[in-house]
Amino acid sequence: MKQQAKWLRFGIGAAVTGIVLAGFGVSKAVFADDNVDQAVLDNISQNCSSIKQSLTDLQRADSRTRAYLGSAYESVVRDFITPLNLRLVKNNRVDTKLFEIQGDFSSQQADFRTEYTAYMRELEGLIAMDCGGHPQEFYRQLEKTREHRTKLHNLAESLNKLVSAQYQGVASLKGDL
Amino acid sequence: MANNTAIEQKKPSSLMVVKKKPEQGARNLTLLGVGAILIAIVATSLELWIYRETGDIYLDRSRPGFLPDAEEVEEDTEADSGYIYPENGALDASELDDYLRELKKVEESLNKIQNPYGSNALSNESLGIEAAKEQE
To answer: Among partner residues B102, B122, B128, which is closest to A142 by beta-carbon distance?
Structure first.
């Protein structure tokens, strides 16, 4: 029993030491990656209010863009892609390319919605931060927001290309009739 | 005699019950009110948490500051041609012509937004964090 208690205490001590060391290691890694120019950090602190205003305006513009793109994509799926493919099925005509476009479009549309939510969450977090007092954290959050914005941009471009592919596919189908 | 005794014995306890009722009723009413308010607070907090966590708050344009402008509503109305390709019937080349014409309009409306969510808007130069580098 005494031996077991001794091993138990040793185990707990080792675990706590490990956690503390891991925490130092992680924090060191985080700070080691922050090679941000001091001039940039100073600019962030000095221009904090104007930066926040720009971000707020951008948030509003992005929301408007999302509404516009979202309704266009919804219209493409509801009024063009789905009814055409249904009609093809009813006429016993299989067009693999058009069916693939439907699958890709629907899944990327869902990804677009998810990514937009993630991006807006980060942007809102960025606007709420105190850039005057904590420019380094602000810049870190800005980098994270940029990554999400890039993903969103890629998804929007991909969806636009699928609309063009749909056009080409239907033009080809019309030629075969 | 025995019955009268029983009735007399009953009276004091019924009197005591009548005395207690107003106090107990007031307490129950207060508890009901407090309970209803607490339930409302919990339910509203939960609802708002779900609204934020699921991301619906970011898709909702009815919140203050994100309402569409008047010209934006007009644009949306003009852009919506109302065309729906009929899903029944034989495949017809002339109908596909209409389809392609309407799809082209949608494609052009999408292309009006150049470089959607481009990286420039969040660049250091755009935000005023860093001066634009002069080209050599």
So the answer is: B122
Residues of B whose CB is below 8 A from A43: 128-130
| Closest residue on chain B to A162 (Cα) | B107
For residue A143, the chain B residue with the least C-alpha distance is B122
Quote the CA–CA distance of B30 and A163 in Å, as a whole number. 62
Instruction: Report the number of distinct structural domains present in chain A.
Output: 2
pTM of the model as a whole? 0.74
> CB within 8 A of B34, min separation 6: which ones?
none
CA angle A61, A67, A72 (to 5 degrees): 130
Domain ranges (residues) in chain B: 1-67, 68-127
Q: Which residue among B91, B106, B122 sits closest to A145, beta carbon to beta carbon?
A: B122
| Percent of all residues in chain B with a pLDDT value above 70, rounded to a whole number | 66
Q: Do A63 and B58 touch (CB under 8 A)?
A: yes
Residue with tokens 């700070």: A31
- Pair A26, A71 in one domain: no
| Residue with the two structure tokens 């860093």 | B130
Range of weakest confidence among A18-22, A85-89, A94-98, B121-125? A18-22
A16 lies in the same domain as A97? no
The reply to whether A110 and A62 lie within a common domain is yes
| A145 and A103 share one domain | yes
Residues A103 and A171 in one domain: yes
- pLDDT tens-digit map of B43-62: 999 999 999 888 888 877 77
Q: What is the ipTM of this complex?
A: 0.77
